[in-house]
Amino acid sequence: MEGKVITSKKENAVIKENSKTKDLVLTALLTALVFVATKFINFQLPFSIHGGLIHLGNTMLFAAAVVFGGKKGAISGAFGMGLFDLVSGWAVWAPFTFVIRGVMGWVIGTIAHRKGNNGDSFKWNMLGILIGSVWMIIGYYFAEVIIYGNWYTPLTAIPGDITQIVIGIILGVPLITALKKTKVV
């Protein structure tokens, strides 16, 4: 029996409960970080007819999804940015944002963790971010078609969406690299 650790059912239950609690707290923290980066670090593009909000929420969403996977990416993106819409005068956008950003986070995290990479492959991380970002642009385009009732006005938001993604990548990739090097993750 040397070297073998024996645990009771009670100890296993405590470990499992602590793990669930830690997972819940981490998911809530990631959601809060996405919300704060969206709400408090943003500016409006002057050339967009509607919307055109540039924010750092994508930076945090990219980091959450790549470092922690699709589930946490989906939850933090959907709830973090959906909550932003609700409290910032963009409530009509909230249902669209919830779905678009939830799927975006799931896609990024799922691709980044593909084949056991766990977000360690730059190639898979970037592929996830690019596919998730294309989904975001298409999703918001059709959301704007529904909201504004035409096919042309939503085109003015695309430059802002692309700018938001590029800024998210420029700031997010170094953040992801730094997080992956810590012992916390």
TrEMBL record:
Pfam families: ECF-ribofla_trS. This is Uncharacterized membrane protein. Keywords: Membrane, Transmembrane, Transmembrane helix. The chain crosses the membrane at residues 24-41, 53-70, 90-112, 124-142, 162-179. The keyword Membrane applies. GO terms for cellular component: membrane. Gene3D superfamilies: 1.10.1760.20.
